[in-house]
Amino acid sequence: MGLVDYTTDLLKQAMTRFAKNAAGKSRYTILDLGASQGRNSLQLVHHVIKHLDASLPSNASPDILVLHEDQPANDFATLLDTLISPASYIYARPNIYTGVISKSFYEQVMPTAAVDIAVSYISAHWLSKTPAPLPGDVVMYNDSETKASVAASTLATWQQAAHDDLVAFLRLRAAELADHGSLCMTYISDNGSPLIQEYGRILREAVQDMVAAGILSSASQDRVAVPMVFRTTDEFLAAVAQVPELELHEYEHVPMDVKFPNATESTKFLSSVLWPSLDASMTEQERTDPQVRQVFNSCMAAKMSQPVAGASVPFFEQFTIMYFYGHLTRRPRANTDAP
Predict the structure, then answer these.
(1) What is the pTM assigned to this prediction?
(2) Domain range holding 281?
(3) What PANTHER family does this protein's entry cite (predicted)?
């Protein structure tokens, strides 16, 4: 089961609310933010369309335009191939159209009030940029073991950047959404579980092992800073409070157990997420040396094979990702035609 399966009942609630409150149309526009290569988007959009159709009047058969957004450096060739693959939602029913947008979701990507439904799954934990360098062997903001070694001003800079980015993201969506439009979003979060802190520790120790093995320089280690923040519920609510154009409905942490057969497979998953941040910190010689990634994967697999948080089983057997789900709708705009 994937995250969409875990949240499909929440998506159903959101689409039921949308169909009840939004104006009936002959065409609806769905915006998928942070589509990457599209593998998560296929199932997500399929569920959204399924729940939307089930919530509309039985005689309704609107056209649906789905636009997938990601930043210009994204692999759009693979995304486009995914969108026309046999598993695509475009074959689920007639009158579905699709396209892509090459732009950061920290900018307005659609005209004002042009979007009926926006979805953003597993992407808003990435910040718009690295807020400030992290010192020494600290590689992630959410690493409680090393926060004592980070200057309070640096931590405050990261915390403020995470807040500002989420506020900006929500304000942009408020501009793009039509009245009563729907925003469903998820991102990796912090619910206070000790396991959440382990990801930062494991990455930090793997990078330390690479330096000890002589495969990565200390200077490159010092440049590593993964621009990712796992927000708490209070941090989410603080951002929402600054965007009164949006009304908050359901929100909750969604723990998802991910089953891996061994440490190597869990490392492949983490490496696909974290490697770009490490790669960006390296020298050209390190970046082009295939042994560097091999050693990184080996170090990560060794860490994933160890028990954590007082457990008796290796980390890959208790691998849980904590997501946060939030559903917001666009409050109606003031009637500017009124005298």
Answers:
(1) 0.94
(2) 192-226+260-318
(3) S-ADENOSYL-L-METHIONINE:CARBOXYL METHYLTRANSFERASE FAMILY PROTEIN
Residue 189 has a pLDDT of: 96
Residue 2 DSSP class: -
d(CA 168, CA 156): 18
First to last CA, the chain: 54
- Contact criterion met (CB below 8 Å) for 270 and 300: yes
Q: What is the sign of the dihedral through the CA atoms of 57, 86, 10 and 236?
A: negative
50 CB neighbour count, 10 Å cutoff: 17
Whether residue 242 sits in one domain with residue 281: no
- The beta strand positions in the chain, using DSSP E, are 27-33, 63-70, 96-102, 115-121, 177-188, 246-257, 320-330
Q: Walk across the sheet containing 96-102 and list its strands.
A: 96-102, 63-70, 27-33, 115-121, 177-188, 320-330, 246-257
| Range in 99-103, 272-276, 296-300, 333-337 with the lowest mean pLDDT | 333-337
Question: Residue 251: which CATH number?
Answer: 3.40.50.150
Whether residues 19 and 70 fall in one domain: yes
Q: How far apart are CA 205 and CA 308, in angstroms?
A: 13
For residue 158, the Cα-to-chain-centroid distance in whole angstroms is 18
